[in-house]
């Protein structure tokens, strides 16, 4: 692995050169130099991007988070304080909290987009979550944020944004799988690929909707490539899962944590503990030179 000496350091946080990512409650800071396969493209400029996930704008429950607006404002302030700024910011779904009212859905999306407008960096990559798109197959999301799935290339890395949220069956669908296969056809097997999604592409806990029904087909299409990293949200916690050549990395939520996959019973947001120093909201590092990956969290709550 190669690590850049040009890493941004937030005030009061000492980040070593061994760190791959520095993640906050809303997601993380991802350095291209630490991505699998990036060493093969060392001549390309290093860069980093920020991942924010599961903002759930419109969620209200003081027992879970007594200050939802403040949580997002703190995240935005933390990102704005970083210098140099990231190349772009990725939002991996559930930007708004689910509602059956189409007008309220659009109001929440417009409000949270206005909040994102206070970020210094306005290079934004948006993905939908099921809270955004499950009620209308992504109609409101596309009106306000744009396409549901797409690709782009940035400084030697191929990015693929998938939509596994707008279909109520929690699947990608045949058309999108064919689109993915066509995009991957003929690509260099050694070149690094980053996949962005909302739900996990593997069966983390299907009974909690922590899966994509045809995700295994997408992973199979990605397996011939030696260096694939999938960044996703949905599960509101830090989880990594290695599946052959594909590394899956989950991000925390900006609003509230959820139970771990080994928790029995129903899924429900965890209650806020006013005495806690870490509400599962904080900066974290991932050391890729340790086996397994080492996580260190820096509370900011």
Question: What do these coordinates show?
Answer:
With 301 residues, this protein is an alpha/beta fold. The chain has a single domain (19-299), classed as Metallo-dependent phosphatases (Purple Acid Phosphatase, chain A, domain 2, 4-Layer Sandwich), CATH 3.60.21. Helix content is 19%, strand content 21%. It contains 6 helices and 13 strands. The protein has helices at 68-80, 102-116, 130-133, 139-144, 174-184, 215-222; strands spanning 19-23, 27-31, 48-52, 88-92, 124-127, 150-154, 157-161, 193-196, 228-232, 240-243, 246-250, 282-287, 294-299. Residues 1-26 and 282-301 have low confidence and may be disordered.
Q: Which features would summarize this protein structure in a list?
A:
single chain; alpha/beta; Purple Acid Phosphatase, chain A, domain 2; 6-stranded mixed sheet; 13 strands
**Which percent range describes the beta-strand content?**
15-25%
What is the name of the CATH class? Alpha Beta
Return the structural class: alpha/beta
CATH architecture annotation name: 4-Layer Sandwich
What characteristic shape results from the CA principal axes?
A: globular
Main β sheet profile: 7 strands, mixed
Overall pLDDT confidence: 81
E-strand count: 13
Count of individual helical segments: 6
């Amino acid at each position: 692995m190669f690590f850049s000496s040009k890493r941004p350091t937030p005030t009061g946080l000492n980040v070593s050169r061994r760190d791959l990512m520095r993640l906050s409650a809303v997601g993380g800071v991802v350095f291209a130099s630490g991505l699998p396969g990036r060493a093969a493209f060392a001549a390309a400029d290093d860069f980093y991007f920020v991942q924010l996930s599961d903002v759930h704008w419109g969620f209200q429950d003081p027992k879970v988070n007594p200050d939802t607006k403040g949580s997002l404002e703190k995240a935005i302030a933390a990102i704005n304080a970083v210098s140099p700024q990231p190349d772009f910011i990725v939002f991996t779904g559930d930007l708004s909290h689910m509602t059956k009212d189409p007008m309220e859905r659009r109001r929440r999306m417009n409000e949270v987009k206005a909040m994102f407008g206070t970020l210094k960096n306005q290079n934004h990559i948006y993905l939908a979550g099921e809270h955004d798109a499950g009620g209308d197959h992504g109609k409101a999301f596309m009106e306000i944020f744009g396409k549901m799935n797409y690709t782009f290339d940035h400084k030697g890395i191929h990015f693929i944004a998938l939509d596994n949220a707008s279909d109520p069956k929690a699947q990608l669908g045949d058309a999108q799988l064919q689109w993915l296969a066509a995009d991957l056809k003929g690509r260099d097997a050694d070149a690094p690929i980053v996949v962005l999604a909302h739900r996990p592409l593997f069966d983390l806990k299907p009974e909690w909707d922590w899966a994509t029904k045809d995700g295994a087909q997408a992973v199979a299409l990605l397996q011939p490539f030696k260096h694939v990293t999938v960044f996703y949200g949905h599960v509101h916690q830090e989880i990594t899962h290695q599946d052959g050549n594909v590394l899956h990395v989950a991000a925390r939520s900006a609003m509230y944590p959820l139970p771990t996959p080994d928790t029995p019973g129903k899924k429900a947001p965890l209650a806020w503990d006013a005495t806690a120093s870490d509400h599962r909201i904080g900066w974290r590092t991932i050391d890729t030179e340790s086996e397994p990956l080492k996580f260190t969290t820096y509370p900011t709550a």
